[in-house]
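Run folding on both entries below.
>entry_1
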Amino acid sequence: MNIRTITTGICLQSTKEVDRIKSVAEFNQKAKAFFEQRGYHVQTTRIATNSWEEYLSGIASEKMVNEIGNIEKICLSLHVSFFNIGYASSAEKIATCSEIIKNTSVISCSSKIGDFESGVDFENAKASAKVIKRISEQTENGLGNFRFCAWANCRPGIPFFPAGYHEGETSFSIGLESSDLAMKAFSKSSNLFEAERNLKSVVEAELNRVQDIAQQISKEFKVQGSIQRD
């Protein structure tokens, strides 16, 4: 099993909080080393923030792209390869996302198109479709769309990008890549019932180990953690 990502979430109040971003980048590297010393391969480390609408409130759309460009410069100086600025929740702000993706290389973002409480926001869905089309045309081979998505019913704390965003106190989450556990369980099974039992046993054992390590990290660095599987 690989650790796909250690993603740490912070709430920003502006795009100029260099020291906070630096502190989180340093924590990610410490957490990565902590897992690697215990035999795990950590593929990536990432940072996610609260919705960029919050810390860029009142700024014109064209200036927003420049402000987010400042975050990109900070990330590049710190060798941060994955940084998510959270989601846009209005059609006007969603329309800006194609320019954000076009003018950055490590920044991800997303759009909220619905939730259980309010249902589907069709205007946001339409705006998101237009953004996806523009990104496909404006970035090489359309690969910019790996850094943008439209989502519904996603909660904060998701470690996987581009849907990830953050709310509340600083915390980290572990994203796992665990298809090999299924292979391990099924290769030792002679029928579906046995496969189910073996898979449950193998996954629980591995997740308990990862959870123990994450709790050690939380205790040592005073950052709350959680685990999610791909």
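>entry_2
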Amino acid sequence: MFEPSKINYDKLIERFADDNKVVINKMAVSENNGFSELFSDAPGSGLASLTKRRLDHYGLEFNVKETVETIKFEDYWKSTLSMRAIDIIKIDVEGHELDVLNGLGASIFKTKSIQFEFGGTNIDTKRYFQDYWYYFKEYPFKIYRITPFGLNPIGYYRESEESFSI
């Protein structure tokens, strides 16, 4: 598990202190190794993003920021996971899902399933469903949208897939 926010990292460390099966890394997964700013509306917010979101229309200002370490997942996979096969990667990084995907490198060929979030945060990062569609077109994955009614297979790209909410 990767959690860049210090407050949330500390909560996770406490929550999983007795579970040696859970490894929590205090960093953000991205397409580069280095450092970035994590912006949020409040310390520990679930809305935190590596992009300063524009949510004035909801009365939210992203004025809280914290410098966080970033890592390319492929490097972590090679150095820490010994290039093992991966059953599932779940990506929920508030608009930077494509950055994480770009950082998977060769690990994508050892991954069975990838779940990623697509929604309003993609408005702020200017990443469209089309970007994800063409990314996955290069790999042997099928794309589904999770809906309240179950999985909806997406067999081809169409502009109506650019839905930023359910």
